[in-house]
Amino acid sequence: MSERVVPGPERRRRKPTKTGTVLSEEIIVETALRLIGQHGAEALTVRRLGLALGADPSALYRYFRNADDLLLAVADELIGRAQRGWEPTGDWQADLRAIGLRIHASYRAHPQAARLAGYRTTGRHNEMNAVEGILGVLRRAGFPDPEAVRIYHAFVDQGLGYAILDAAADALPEAAREADSAVWDARYAQLPAHTHPNIAATAHLLIADMPRSAYPLALDLLLAAAAQWLERLRG
Q: What gap in Å lies between CA 129 and CA 101, rounded to an integer?
């Protein structure tokens, strides 16, 4: 794509595409998400999007400067989906836990897109609302601004890191996922106690726990540590 995006008020395509669709930024992002889910990173091209939309690829330049601009819009859409329906309750730990789990679930629902976009900073509407909301929860809880920013940073990086890790596992072919999961039973559970006493003692627990995401527990540990930090600040 080139650098000739059209200003917002002039973007709307008046004539439907070959498929009967009137183009919009939302429709393009939704189509990009679908194509990335089906075909991975290689789907994010002007030609593929144009074919899927039934539009001349050049029409996409009215909405996005280039492929990276579109990728940022996809990333921002995932953030927006995580926020839909969320309302703060006033319990800062419960609110942050809900936000974290929502972000994690949103990215896991689109693993291929998460692998491409989960580490990007979009500077777009949904991301700004998320930053504002999370900082608001922390500041209302009583964290001074320097601590609020540091906890925000740790909270977001932890959530996105786990989301990308789990999304990468979700995006593996089914046979590979099953093979990875079977390793705990086929290999680790067979290790003798005289060479690997700790693994031998906990192998049955590892088999049960390792296929699950560790994010909920990691999130709870982070929030518990933040609560202790807040108590020290108040003390």
A: 17
With CA atoms as reference, report the closest residue to 106 among 90, 127, 89, 125: 127
Compute the radius of gyration of the chain from its Cα atoms. Answer: 22
Q: Identify the architecture of domain 87-234 in CATH.
A: Orthogonal Bundle (1.10)
- What's the CATH architecture for 8-65? Orthogonal Bundle (1.10)
d(CA 113, CA 218): 23
pLDDT tens figures, 37-70:
888 877 788 888 888 998 888 888 889 988 889 9
**Eight-state DSSP code of residue 212:** S
Q: Identify the residue with better confidence: 181 or 41.
A: 181
Which amino acid, residue 116? L
End-to-end, the C-alpha distance of the chain in Å comes to 56
Measured between alpha carbons, how far is 94 from 220 in angstroms, rounded to an integer? 10
- Residues 18/23/29/34 CA torsion (nearest 10 deg): -20
In the chain, CATH 1.10.10 covers: 8-65
Q: What DSSP character marks residue 193? A: T
Q: In degrees, to the nearest 5, what angle opens at C-alpha 115 toward C-alphas 125 and 173?
A: 140
DSSP 149: H
